What we know:
The chain is mainly α.
Amino acid sequence: xxxxxxxxxxxxxxxxxxxxxxxxxxxxxxxxxxxxxxxxxxxxxxxxxxxxxxxxxxxxxxxxxxxxxxxxxxxxxxxxxxxxxxxxxxxxxxxxxxxxxxxxxxxxxxxxxxxxxxxxxxxxxxxxxxxxxxxxxxxxxxxxxxxxxxxxxxxxxxxxxxxxxxxxxxxxxxxxxxxxxxxxxxxxxxx
Length: 191
């Protein structure tokens, strides 16, 4: 498109106008990224060298001034492409950082809600209910269970109100030596 625009501008100017080629490079940065910039520069300036300066439709530039205008415009196009790609990369990084910050903010809000619910819980069963409902959501798990140490066993607590996220039957007993994630921490602290 930049070459076509430059060709259409030929009757309006005594000199070759390469500005549309610069515009096509700038547009390609935002629409097609790195591949678009390379394509716009290579094809645009390759076609321009062949189709625009006299003698037309030959890869021979008759005037040193035309060659300098073409080369200077090419250099500016490369700079526009590099700056545009740098800006695009910065924009993409900023968007990713904003997304990470939003996820982090939501995680903190869930933890604050969990802390508030735990501080309001008065019984072991209420604490178990808050933990089984709140902790899995806060850490991205599907469910959980809370157990209390009773001698050399872990007894699964019945959460108040019952919860669908309870993964182990309330009242079940697991030896602290069992190879299960729920017994790992109690076994280590009880040893």
